[in-house]
Design goal:
- The chain is mainly alpha-helical.
- It folds into 2 domains: about 60 residues; about 100 residues, no CATH class.
- Helix content is about 50%, strand content about 10%.
- It is built from 7 helices and 5 strands; from the N terminus they run βαβαβαββαααα.
- The strands form 2 sheets. The protein has a 3-stranded parallel β-sheet, with helices on one face.
- Strand 1, helix 1 and strand 2 form a beta-alpha-beta unit.
- Helix 2 packs antiparallel against helix 7 and helix 3 packs antiparallel against helix 6.
- The protein is elongated, with a radius of gyration of 17 Å.
- The relative contact order is 0.14.
- Bound molecules: zinc ion (ZN).
- The site of zinc ion (ZN) has 8 residues, from helix 4 and helix 6.
């Protein structure tokens, strides 16, 4: 069917990541390259990097917001749990250099305090950071594809996030 775009679904819950990648590889070659391909409900930053390599164009997922509400924040050096006691006196932003509204103004220690006190602002700041992190990663992905350096970008990004 000649449609404006194509959604690939039923792969986000219950399957292993390897199974998901295998099915993406089986399905995507049958879809037109000039039309957008959407992978439903995916996923972690690593899932997105792997799926883009296999031809997926866009995504939706609850991870950045749901994890943010639980104090789990994504960084280029891996995921942090701001409920951990190690951040109690940590005056650094969630991620050094991040331009999101949370990182420009607030420390890990302050956000942790808000989370511990069950102040809604703590959750909101974590969600803001995570949405910014995902959007910024998608910008980097588009730039890397246009520059013809996606493989190097993906390798570097994954290596950083898996350091912890
Ligand atoms: Zn941030």
């Amino acid at each position: 069917m000649d449609l404006p775009g194509y959604a690939v679904g039923g792969l986000a819950v219950g399957e292993t990541h390897e199974e998901m990648y295998r099915i993406i590889e089986a399905v995507i070659p049958h879809l037109p390259v000039e039309k957008p391909t959407y992978l439903m409900g995916v996923g972690t930053p690593a899932n997105i990097l792997e799926a883009v390599e296999r031809g997926v164009d866009f995504f939706d997922c609850v991870y950045p917001s749901r994890n943010g509400r639980h104090g789990h924040v994504y960084t280029n050096l891996g995921k942090l749990n701001l409920f951990n006691a190690q951040y109690e006196l940590d005056e650094r932003p969630i991620e050094e250099g991040c331009q999101c509204p949370a990182c420009r103004r607030y420390s890990r220690a302050y956000i942790r305090h808000l989370l511990k006190a069950k102040e809604m602002l703590g959750m909101r700041l974590c969600v803001l950071h995570n949405l910014y992190f995902y959007n910024h990663m998608m910008e980097e992905i588009r730039e890397a594809i246009e520059a013809g350096s996606y493989q190097e970008y993906k390798k570097r990004k994954l290596a950083g996030m898996e350091k912890k």
